[in-house]
Amino acid sequence: MSSTRFTIIASAVIVGATLAACASTESALTEKGMKPLTGPQIDELLGKETRWNVALANGNRVELRVAADHGTTLSWVGGQASGRLWTTATGYCSEYKTLGDGKPHCYRMYRIDAKTFKSFRDTGDFAAEGTRID
């Protein structure tokens, strides 16, 4: 698959139109009193080494592997990309040199339940939803 199809992957560790229609908006989450996770809360959610099934806003699905050092690997049918993520006071950023524009992109993350997160871009647009693989 081309890197163009995965531009949003490059932008999001850190959840298509159909998916976005089903996904909660960030404002809907905040109206329920939910707050974005802090960096330490994201570190706790991601754990030392985890795997996630991630549904992207563009409709693609990937597997995300997060290593203890926050190195990441995105895998999809026919390809994969390595990158990294880091937490900030108000969310997380990710960078994949071989996808999209190769620049870091930052997000806000919300914990939906013990195994699920949703991420949103700075614009409030839905980016991805991830479910932990045990």
Molecular structure report:
The protein has about 130 residues and is α+β, with helices and mostly antiparallel strands. Helix content is about 20%, strand content about 45%. The chain has helices at about 5-10, 15-20, 25-30, 40-45; strands spanning about 50-55, 60-65, 70-75, 80-90, 90-95, 105-115, 115-120, 125-134. An 8-stranded antiparallel beta barrel has the order 1-2-3-4-5-6-7-8. The longest helix is centred in the first third of the chain and has 8 residues, at about 40-45. The termini are far apart.
* Rg over alpha carbons: 13 Å
**Broad shape:** globular
Count up the helices. 4
Query: Sheet bearing the most strands, described?
Result: 8 strands, antiparallel, barrel
Uncertain runs are 1-22
**Distance between the amino and carboxyl termini:** 27 Å
Main sheet: which strands, in order across? Answer: 1-2-3-4-5-6-7-8
SSE string: HHHHEEEEEEEE
- How much beta, percentage-wise? 35-45%
How many DSSP-defined strands?
8
Mean pLDDT: 83
**Fraction of residues in H or I helices:** 10-25%
Structure class: alpha+beta
Quick rundown:
By secondary structure, the chain is α+β, with helices and mostly antiparallel strands. It contains four helices and eight strands, in the order ααααββββββββ.
Characteristics:
alpha+beta; 8-stranded antiparallel β-barrel
Give the arrangement of secondary structure elements.
Layout (H helix, E strand, L loop, with lengths): L6 H5 L5 H6 L3 H6 L7 H8 L3 E7 L4 E6 L4 E6 L2 E10 L2 E5 L9 E9 L2 E6 L4 E8 L1
Antiparallel strand pairs: 1-2, 1-8, 2-3, 3-4, 4-5, 5-6, 6-7, 7-8
